[in-house]
Specification:
Structural class: mainly alpha
Distance between the termini: 92 Å
Order of helices and strands: HHHHHH
Number of domains: 2
Largest sheet: none
Radius of gyration: 27 Å
Number of helices: 6
Strand content: under 5%
Length: 154
């Protein structure tokens, strides 16, 4: 006859704490050390966690991920609104800043969804004056047909 699970048959409070730690995907070695049980006991015990507890932990994780994605989507929408407003007002420096923020939001979203791995990202930074940034932004917007060239420009 198999031996009963030492964690299930142990103190109720300890049992529930170990269940929570497993559901939060803590390393078995850390759980074993913290609650003075063997690593193997923790591994065997994980199949004894009630299914409804495991489902609720998964649901909480999905809800948390949905919440994070919603926040990132809100940031993206706000950056797009700022970009459109600054382009409409002709504030090129603000448009460049809004584009930069939009790029950062898209990068964050790609990292969250796993489409971009951080270890493969190379970021080159070039420092230029505000006037040069405005010239570059104006040229970009003119080429895209978003603004017209001014009469005094060549």
């Amino acid at each position: 006859m198999p031996r009963p699970c030492s964690i299930c048959s142990g103190p109720e409070e300890k049992h529930h704490a170990i269940d929570e730690a497993i559901l939060h995907r803590e390393p078995f070695r850390g759980i074993a050390r913290r609650y003075a049980v063997s690593h193997d006991s923790v591994g065997r015990h994980r199949v004894h966690i009630p299914a409804h507890m495991a489902r609720s932990a998964d649901a909480a994780e999905v809800a948390s991920a949905d919440s994070l994605l919603t926040k990132v989507a809100d940031l993206e929408a706000q950056a797009r609104r700022l970009l459109a407003k600054s382009e409409k007002c002709g504030k090129l420096a603000v448009s460049v800043a809004a584009l930069r923020e939009l790029r950062n939001v898209v990068e964050l979203l790609a990292r969250i969804t796993g489409e971009l791995r951080s270890e493969h990202v190379a970021l080159n930074v070039q420092v230029i004056s505000e006037e040069a940034a405005e010239r570059v932004a104006r040229a970009f917007l003119v080429r895209r047909g978003l603004i017209e060239t001014e009469a005094h420009e060549t």
